[in-house]
Structure formats: structure tokens, C-alpha cells
Amino acid sequence: MKTFAGLRVHEIVQTYSDTLIRIAVQQTKNMSEAEDIVQEVYMTLMKQKKPFDNESHLKAWLIKVTFNKCKDYFKSSRVRKTVSITDEMTFIAKEEQSVLPEIFELVQEDRVIVYLHYYEGYTTAEIANLLEMKVNTVGSKLRRVRMKLKTILEEGSKV
């Protein structure tokens, strides 16, 4: 059986599927499309010939490919009207759901940065590397998004 970074394919699927699904859902806002995208990611993995240095390299590769597949999705003719994302997000913890509508209002690039930083725990340098951006750009976008979300959440709690 084929292995990547010392892990068998079924171990990779068990370990990373939730993360990849969350990324794809927050990008596409559609659970069924997200599942299709993650399947495509795993098919791409199976065709991968270059070895991974370690498990963190594998994880970064999977995340990057997932974002790229999401970009491809938006370029394709598959994009269509979607079901309300909050109806499909039952697998996300309650505390995360409280800010999801606000996060989904952000532009796609900002959502990516927020997700990678707060949900996956990546540093700004790691995000910059994954998204092929400058570290300072990621840092300033993260600061602007924090201020924007803070304003949105404060206004919502005053109502």
C-alpha cells in the first residue's frame, strides 16, 4: 500500500479530512462541492510522485491543493446558487458557529487567512508561504480583518 510521509492513505484521510472539508466549505459555502473538492485532493495525492519531507509538509501540501481546487471550482461552470451554509455546518462547534456568518461575509482571500490562522493555528509566515504572499501583507490583512470582525460583532451585540 502506498504511503506518504510514513502514513498510509486511510490514515491521511482519517487525520485530515475534517480540516480539508472545513477549508473547502468555508471557501465554496457548499457542503457537497466541498466533499467533491476533497475527493479531488486525495486523487491528486495518489498521483503525487515527489516524497514529502514529513507530516507537516504533507499537511501543508494538502491544504494548498485544497485552496487551489477551490479556486478551480470558482473558475469552472460548476458554480451555482448554494444552500445557506449555516444549514450545512452542523459539524462545526457551537462557539465557532457564532462568528461564521460574519466570517462568510469576508472576501475569499481574507476568509482563507482567518481560517488558517485561527482554525489551523498557522503563523503569518506559514500562511504567507502557503498562499505565496508576503508576510507583511498577510499580517496587515489579518489586522484589518480583526478590526472589521470586531466592529461587526460589537454592532451585532448592541442590537
UniProtKB/TrEMBL annotation:
It comes from the Bacteria. One of its GO terms (biological process) is DNA-templated transcription initiation. SUPFAM superfamilies: Sigma2 domain of RNA polymerase sigma factors (SSF88946), Sigma3 and sigma4 domains of RNA polymerase sigma factors (SSF88659). Residues 121-148 form the HTH luxR-type domain. Gene3D superfamilies: 1.10.1740.10, Winged helix-like DNA-binding domain superfamily/Winged helix DNA-binding domain. Keywords: Sigma factor, Transcription, Transcription regulation. GO terms for molecular function: DNA binding; sigma factor activity. It holds the Pfam family Sigma70_r4_2. Belongs to the sigma-70 factor family. ECF subfamily. This is HTH luxR-type domain-containing protein. It comes from Ureibacillus massiliensis 4400831 = CIP 108448 = CCUG 49529.
